[in-house]
Structures are given as structure tokens and as C-alpha cells.
Amino acid sequence: MALYEHIYLARQDVTAQQVEALTEQLKAVITAGGGKIGRVEYWGVKSLAYRIKKNRKAHFTILNIDAPPAAVAEMERQMGINEDILRLLTIRVEAHEDGPSVMMRKRDDSEDRGERGDRGDRGDRGDRGDRERRPRPPRRPREDIEHAPDAGREGGF
User: Fold this and answer.
1) What is the pTM of this model?
2) Is the pLDDT of residue 124 over 90?
3) Is 36 in contact with 73 (CB distance < 8 Å)?
């Protein structure tokens, strides 16, 4: 059987319990087709880079699947019919990642950083008030408003 990573985006107005029910439905399709689900991660509601079907946010869920291609094709077919699913992507992989995905690690790292985060080697820069002031170059002269072609008209447009 082949290994897949499958991610889907569900509409923002669907509850987390409904997303969980969708995931259970997808698991049932895969197991009926002779496959199995390795890991399921719910990433929560995230903002989209652009609107998809009039939605600005979506529920993100990723699944690690070990199944024959026919079972994955059937799952994708059923997801395409479902109105609550905005997008889906299935990628065949050589091996599944061990441990949490990058998105979950990112969330854990941000909790460890504290209030202002890890500043690296930026430590003792001071308030930058000790820099010397450089003189600015002279400004370009403004064109007179009287000489502008639309100066005589009222309204300014």
C-alpha cells in the first residue's frame, strides 16, 4: 500500500465537532477500502491567504494515510461532493514524519518563547539614540500650484 499525506480545509462556520465528524467519515472510507489512518492533526481555524468560495478562514486538518490508491480516490470523490470542504490536497510520500507536524511544532515553539520571543543576538543595542545624525539632502522645490493646468477649475478634480 502507498503512503499519503492528506490535508483538507473545511468552512469556517462549521464547528470543530462537525470537522471531527468529517474526519471520522473519511477514516471509515479509508478503512472500508483496506487502508488505515496513521496520524490525525487538527490545526484549528486559520486565516487563508485569499478567499476561497467566499471564506476568509478555514478549519485545517491533516491525515497520514496508508491505503491503496482506490481507497484514496474514493475518499477524494466523497470530499469533492461535500459542501463543507473548501479544498483538499493529497500527496504521496515515501515515509510519514515521526512526531508532530511542522504546524504543531511551530505552535509549541511559540509557547516556549515567552512574551517577546527569542531575540537572538540583538541584546545590547541600546535605544539607538547614540547614533550620529546625518544631514538630509535638500528637498526638491515644489511646483507652484498656480502654474498647474487645472488650477483655475473649482473642485480640484
Assistant:
1) 0.64
2) no
3) no
